[in-house]
User: Fold this.
Amino acid sequence: MVREDGKRNFVMLEDGEKTKQFTGEMPRQAALKAARRLDGYGSYDAESEAKADPTEIRLLERGTDRVHIYHAWAWRDSAPDTKPDWMEDNEVSTVTRGNVSKQGIEHIDT
Assistant:
């Protein structure tokens, strides 16, 4: 269901269990947020390495029967020169970047 601000809620499905919730105007936006929080990608320093080992993520759109399926990967990258002040104060030198590739949509039986 679409909220008043145009955003939708998506719940990650892992082994049939609803685990984490992500919000975005489009399913891809929520999938990108989920990709950056995947475990096991901290050792990849280049997108090409991470892309070779994608993880399937499944996002159930709240209020519907649609499950959006993506291949997702993430990698560590150096922080941009234009990083915000809070990153400077904490001496953060790397950020996690993510990318996704949509595989399709499934409809679940309710």
About this structure: The chain has three helices and five strands.
